[in-house]
């Protein structure tokens, strides 16, 4: 008797890849020397790149683009803070804050992906510029990979311990 081979859902397949990315982000946070954490190069720092990755995941793990307060971890008021104040606030974001934010967003994304059926993943949500939730999440994986590559390159250029694949 042959048994039908079952395949994991698309959601669980995506979740596996997101978990791998979260692991790489956490590695980066933990291995970057403290003196390089907030070092700015071309208007970006290692810490703000990590923040950007997690904040984008926070945004795209929602069902609508409405209601996101960008820069909330750093308490940034994009409309009223001066460039100098924004840079100062960015530089004060800690490793512990971003590790906690990673856990929070990762948990939410995990809960979502465990619940959504393949059919539900193919539906649109409040992000009009994507054809489906699935497309939005594949975009997010691609976005994260791009920025994790930047983190890896920065670590290499600074002769630091590297993020493991």
From the N-terminal CA to the C-terminal CA, the straight-line distance is 40 Å
Overall form: globular
Class per helix and strand makeup: mainly alpha
Uncertain runs with pLDDT below 50, 5 residues or more? none
Radius of gyration: 18 Å
Helix content: 55-70%
Sheet with the most strands? 2 strands, antiparallel
Percent of residues in beta strands: under 5%
Describe this structure in words.
The chain has 165 residues and is an all-alpha fold. It has a domain at 9-35 and 42-60 and 127-165. The chain is built from 7 helices and 2 strands. It has helices spanning 10-31, 34-37, 46-60, 83-91, 95-115, 118-121, 133-157; strands at 40-41, 44-45. The chain has a two-stranded antiparallel ribbon. β1 and β2 form a beta hairpin. α3 (46-60) runs parallel beside α5. The radius of gyration is 18 Å and the shape is globular.
Structure at a glance:
61% of the residues lie in helices and 2% in strands. It is mainly α and 165 residues long.
Give keywords.
165 residues, mainly alpha, two-stranded antiparallel sheet, 7 helices, 2 strands, globular
What layout of secondary structure does this protein have?
Blueprint: H1 10-31, H2 34-37, E1 40-41, E2 44-45, H3 46-60, H4 83-91, H5 95-115, H6 118-121, H7 133-157
Antiparallel strand pairs: 1-2
